[in-house]
Amino acid sequence: MDMEGKMIPIKEQEAKGKGQRARGKRQGARGRVCQISVALLLAHWAFGQTPQDSLSPQQLREITIQEKAQEFATGAMRGVENFGIYTGKKTEVISLSNLCANVSTNNARQIYSRITGLNIWESDGAGLQLGIGGRGLSPNRTANFNTRQNGYEISADALGYPESYYTPPTEALERIEIVRGAASLQYGTQFGGLLNFRFKRGPQDKKLEITSRQTAGSWGFFGSFNSIGGTIAKGKLNYYAYFQYKTGDGWRPNSGFNYRCGYASLDFKATERLSLQLDLTRMDYLAQQAGGLTDKLFQDDARQSVRSRNWFQVDWNLAALSLNYAFSERTRLNIRNFGLIAGRQSVGNLERINVADLGGNRTLISGQFRNFGQEGRLLHQYSWHNLPQTLLFGYRLYYGHSTAQQGDANNASGPDFYFLHPDELENSDYTFPNRNQALFAEHVFHFSSKWSLTPGLRLEHIRTGSEGYYTQRVLDAAGNVIVQNKINDSKTRDRGFLIGGLGLSWKPRTALEVYANFSQNYRAINFTDLRISNPNYIVDSTIHDERGFTADLGLRGQKSGFFTWEVTAFYVAYNGRIGQVLRADLPPLYNDYRFRSNISDARNIGLEAFAEIDLLRMLGQTQRPLRWTWFVNTALVDARYIHTQDASIRNKRVEMAPPLLFRSGTTLQKGAWRVAVQGGYVAAHYSDATNAERTATAVEGQIPAYFVMDLSASWRWRWLTLEGSCNNLLDERYFTRRAESYPGPGIIPSDGRGVYVTLGVKF
């Protein structure tokens, strides 16, 4: 661990005679080796090991610290990093400083273009919410990933409601880390894996640094990002803070927004062994939602809006306190405390989009989230048969308390988020208490300088409950209420289980690795699956949690710094996968509707491939000031329902799982100039398990294939930066989702061609 509490990997094949930190003079290095040897012997003794098992000074001279800058925009995480073990796992890292993209609007299509297997929902052009799903998982508010910032959770409720309405501004990030399904043992049981946003820190060599970026763009867009950071108190206190504001009218009518987000972080190095970090985050925004379209309306004019009374409001408050303590050079402790106070409210007309909005009372859905969690991690590194070994042990304590209310709102058109009858809601009123305790452990066994094995276990206990009431209504053909019953409901679900995983890594050469892993997964049902009334779908009252596993087999490597590549085959298995089927058996009208349940087992098989090359370095022109890179990103996915007696879905494709994803782009850099062009193709796929081609409500149906191109450019001079971007360069008319609720229902068109210009200064 370095002086800031960051994890330092153990390198396996370094020449003897180098100093402990690969720099400094030999004599100083020998002195440090002797000091560290004493600390390691004491720590080894503290953990019950004999002195004969400890590392000798001669062995320590084979351990170095090496920090290599990432040459491309994407890379992989180190085997041991930030109190996590990633050996034998598929990991991806986006380095924002090496990326030429439209970061002012959080354009996910550009930012995540090099990440394999991602399906991206584009619900707004300002990047207010991120929606990504990998390997055939739904992108809905990134709910299939365990979403974090700086290592702690930021979603509404990690178990009962893992959706993330808050997305950190890309302008404030240093990098984005993604670990696939094998992350389930360390970070929770989600099938998608880990998504972690790592924020920038204040510069180490300045007391004060100020950055200001102002962006103007199409459809009245204006964005302002301003940050300060530095290191004070004789190098003991590092600080970083930002404030971002965004506003705009949107590509379609009735889609304006106002967004504010602020963040402050203090990293205090109390002693040589102890450091503390405090993070505070606040975000709120108000957005009007233009609603969905039918297929016919979309074909006629994708920019039109037939809903003008739908609004969405979010308020997000996060706090985290982290502690890093080094018992010795190889035994370190990390404790993360995090809490959330947040809310989301949506008001509008939820009726099918093929039914005209003739006024009348709207529906208000209000959710409030209160949760607190603590995670502790103890990382111990030692030597066995002169080879470095790593043990990670951790625990998790989590308490969540959420409320969900649904009832009538007024018949106006503005953002009025109040119930007409708060004491007796027309639809439902629920509280959802959650408890979660977990223990986990992983160990990296190095059997040689080339082979390693990483087994792991996670013991999980989940207790979820629901208490409240819902109203059952039956309407006649004219929409009049025939029957209305208030039903009180109270449920508690306790489950405890043990899941395991195993990772394997073989490095025949320094720049080549073969990896394989297997990890079990578990996904708890959301409380929205229990009691949210929606005329576009019905939830099965017996719906239950999902179980399954993920497996990877991959090969990755680099060539002389000018070529990086990775190929991965994966298998994702579900037992009782939650999905939606189209039915028409609800009296008295027998209209078609979505039925959400554990509809079948499913399996997703696929192949992911990525390569990026520096074309001029490949040709041996390393001395030229010009750099020209090109990347290709491809994923083939075959996701199908299996083991079912329901003929309507047997062997059908899993919804939201495009069979082909292809993205490619090139970046040209010379001096202060950088220009990037990229394009992405997403094959046709479906929004429900029956693979319906089209329905009158537009909630079910095919999502046609689409191809989108983007152009970005930047110029830097000392303290001045000028950036420009043209999103959707060819002005393609396409959509990425059919929504059954907000921001729909129906087809949600993606934005057409838009131009953005950013002026930035840094002092």
Question: What does this 3D model show about the protein?
Answer:
The protein has 763 residues and is mostly beta strands. The chain has a single domain (26-204, 215-762), classed as TonB-dependent receptor, beta-barrel domain (Maltoporin, Chain A, Beta Barrel), CATH 2.40.170.20. Helix content is 6%, strand content 53%. It has a 22-stranded antiparallel β-barrel. Strands 1-4-9-10-7-8 form a six-stranded mixed β-sheet, with no helix packed on it. A two-stranded antiparallel sheet has the order 2-3. Strand 25 and strand 26 form a beta hairpin. It is globular, with a radius of gyration of 27 Å. The model is unreliable at 1-68 (pLDDT under 50).
TL;DR?
This protein has 763 residues and is mainly beta. Helices cover 6% and strands 53% of the residues.
Instruction: Determine the N-to-C terminus distance.
Output: 31 Å
Radius of gyration: 27 Å
Strand content: over 45%
**Average pLDDT reading:** 87
The 3D shape can be described as globular
Major sheet summary line: 22 strands, antiparallel, barrel
* Helix amount: under 10%
Q: How many extended strands? A: 37
Annotation field: number of helices? 6
Would you identify the CATH architecture?
Beta Barrel
